[in-house]
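It would be a great kindness if you could assist me with a short task in structural biology. The matter concerns a single protein, recorded as an amino acid sequence and a row of backbone structure tokens. Could you please explain, in whatever detail you think fit, how the structure tokens follow from the sequence? Thank you for your consideration; the sequence and its tokens are set out here:
___
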Amino acid sequence: MTRVRSWLTGILLFTVAAMLFVRTASGDMALYIHPRYEVLIYFCGAILFAFAIICITMPISIPGHSVQFLLIPVLLGVLIAPRALGAEAISHQGTALNQIVQRPQATTPNVVAVDTTQWNIYEWAVAASIDPLALKGKPVQIDGFVVRNPDMQLATDQFMLARYVITCCVADAGGVGMHVQWANSASYHNDQWVHVEGIIDVHQVNGVMQPLVIAHSVAQITIPAKPYIIPHK
């Protein structure tokens, strides 16, 4: 019985290690953690693999509930498909949207010299936190997913385009978003990824001036391999 338990423990440890390697190499782990920590995942997988070899090749004593304990991560990895944070989580943020932008760390962008079509939503949020009026009339090309709920005070021809920003992992993720004005906005639904091109106008949201994208085109796209924005230090 002890030998059987040791074999089962080794097989489960090997399975967990293989899942860590495969999920990290395929990019799925980027849905949970900052890419800089992926090397730690590989290291943990290697340690688990070494323990698996020990359990299979050496007659060691294994705690009675080790098999049941190791079944938990295996079942979670098999039954739960990796999925990026989306519109539902953004909706729960309410007034906290765009608060991940650290205004004291931001510097006033030179919107005359910079090609604003290269900015992502986070960079637009940083610029808007300093001087939204300076952005008026600037060209914009951004990707994100559609968010629409009654609490966002969206007009009938508007939707929120949003993305998540992470600094460590999804536990500290914060949403950033911009209102988009588009005649056919009702044809786009929550979590649908789109590419938006247009120019920036400004409008008031709860008495605060915010940028508004006047869209010239909106096109559906596939979700990026790395859907989260990682700010540059």
Q: What stands out?
A: The chain has a mean pLDDT of 85. The beta strands are 139-147, 158-165, 174-181, 193-205, 208-220. The helical segments are 2-26, 38-57, 66-79, 87-93, 121-130.
